[in-house]
Amino acid sequence: MEAPAAPHNPADTRLTITSPEQMRELGRRLAKLLRAGDLVMLTGELGAGKTTLTRGLGEGLGVRGAVTSPTFVIARVHPSLGDGPPLVHVDAYRLSGGLDEMEDLDLDVSLPDSVIVVEWGEGKVEELADDRLRVVIHRAVGDTTDEVRHVTLTGLGRRWTEADLETLTA
User: Fold this and answer.
1) What's the maximum distance between 2 C-alpha atoms anywhere in the chain?
2) Which residues are CB-contacts of 70 (< 8 A; sequence separation ≥ 6)?
3) Adjacent-strand bridge partners of 89
4) 1 has a pLDDT exceeding 50
5) Residue 10: pLDDT over 60
6) pTM to 2 decimal places
């Protein structure tokens, strides 16, 4: 099944992922491009692979603790096991108040020193940073066992004009 047509941005990087392991590997490769202060927004249907991608990010960043969905705790901090930044993993699915509720998490305090990944953050966290990476994961919906995912990465702001997201397609 084709991914839903989205407006094409020339700065978009598009990938086709065919397994959960490939999604984790994408996360590990993406982690090499991330640094303290980066905000990554993940968008996709339930079961699209947002947490699997974040698990790969955690592996690539070398952080402590198993990366699991923080749906019920809203946010988890995974400290670095080395000299890299910690990973703050947020699930904004249950937050309906937008930035007001997000401000209660003090993400703006963590942002300069951490990599912050927000699942379901669209429309809720954009004001945290002008520079952010938007990752949209499309999957076939309905009664399907199809593992194919279409991933679109869009870097917004000066920080991401300098990053070469095309290296992720190699």
Assistant:
1) 44
2) 76, 89, 90, 91
3) 76, 117
4) no
5) no
6) 0.84
Q: How far is CA 32 from the centre of its chain?
A: 14
* Helix, strand, coil fractions of the chain, as percent rounded to 5: 30, 25, 45
Structure tokens given for 114:
């951490």
Report the alpha-carbon distance of residue 62 to residue 69 in Å, rounded: 18
What is the C-alpha to C-alpha distance for residues 37 and 85, in angstroms, rounded to an integer?
Answer: 9
For the CA atoms of 15, 83, 118, 139, what is the dihedral angle to 10 degrees?
20
Q: Are 135 and 106 in contact (CB under 8 A)?
A: no
Question: Phi first, then psi: what are they for 2, rounded to 5°?
Answer: -70, 145
Token pair 């598009």: residue: 14
What's the CA gap between 26 and 142, in Å, rounded? Answer: 25
**Does residue 129 or residue 20 have the better pLDDT?**
20
Question: Using CA atoms, how far apart are residues 74 and 155, in angstroms rounded to an integer?
Answer: 25
